[in-house]
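INFO  loader      accepted 1 record
INFO  loader      residues=430
INFO  predictor   begin
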Amino acid sequence: MIPAKNKPFIDKCIVSFSHDRFPSRAQADATSLAKARREIEQGKLGVSHLILRACDDSIDRLKFLFLIHGIPIMCYALANILKSSLQQIVVVGSRETEKILQLYLEINGHNGKTIRFVEEDTNNLSILNTLSLGKSSLDLDLDEMILFQPGDLPFLYDMEKTLKDEDIKNYNLILWLNSRQKMFPEIEKFPESEFVRRNYHYRGIYQDGKQCHDLKEPNIYPINLSRVEMDIIEYLHSSRKDGNIFEAGIRKAASLPTRLLRLIPNFFHHWKYFQRDLKNFRANREYKFGAHEANFHEGASILLNTPFKTKLHDDPAFVSDVDALEDWEDFEAMTHCITRSHGENGLQEIHPGGEDLLRFREKAMPELKKILPIYADFPDYLNQIYKDMEMAHVPFDAKGNYVMPGDRQNYAETACRWYQEKCKMLQTQC
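INFO  predictor   done
INFO  writer      dumping tokens
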């Protein structure tokens, strides 16, 4: 097994403003609609009309370019990274994202960090190639973890617990799993406290069988790119959605006979004990895959041939990515809510980078509206997408003003309160 003996912190990052594309808009829309219809029919908590790119789009439907409060989603990610302890940052993205990056840095500065841009390869948009492009622009030691994250986590600004985690030294891959119970501990008593709605396909039994968590795949990856076999990461990443990662792991293990033999005790333990122990918690709740914490860590470490660990966090910003129209509207409703109660500078109440983000909106967006077609009339552009996706409403009125649906009001207010408290806590720590 490839050992782990890393330096005890992460100061390098690859942030991806890239995403794969469907061959045609018709195929992309059909995929998005089929998923949403299936979730509606099954009564899922989190219905998602996915935001998908297509090769024949006249305007690239790249989710990182969508506007929240009139500001590109990717700028929120930039604000988060530039205010962190990270020192070397590689941005992988399209030419449009490069232009926005340049303007953001011109307006708000580098904060003493080294930032490089690498253009995505539209002929190979896999995570493996994105990591390879990013790695080629970083000065990496063999025993060094980096942070890999997509750029659609606009409010993930509390990054230090990830960058300075005590387990960085001893593991070459750490997955920060999204636990419903950790993020929303009052959910059983107060269901409305769950202001981020997602579907949790996994179950994890922790604390020697004392706790069961509803889990969702991670959005950030501390990883040692020199010590992890990247083909396995690509294989598992492509299968992580909708609970298919276990089947992917079995298929990959089958192609590695030596590792498969070593995994037999882990498979046996899982089949013998997991269903039995799960019945002590929520036996009737549907899920796609579950495991005991220790057994999963051991088995995954064997499959990956390197020390591996999962961790649970209590921050909803880790799960709040923007994969779907519903996700986008969560953030638009929240920023609308805080502006209504605190005025035009209200964003600063819920995001530590609010001042920089509002400055960018004021100074850069007039130019971007002229040179990037997606911003020429973004409200009309998004309204048409909502219509194509058969949504029950459109988000903007005839004047381009956001109109919040009544059923989002309580969730938006709850989210505002949570992020206000988060910002106050971080200011106190500083």
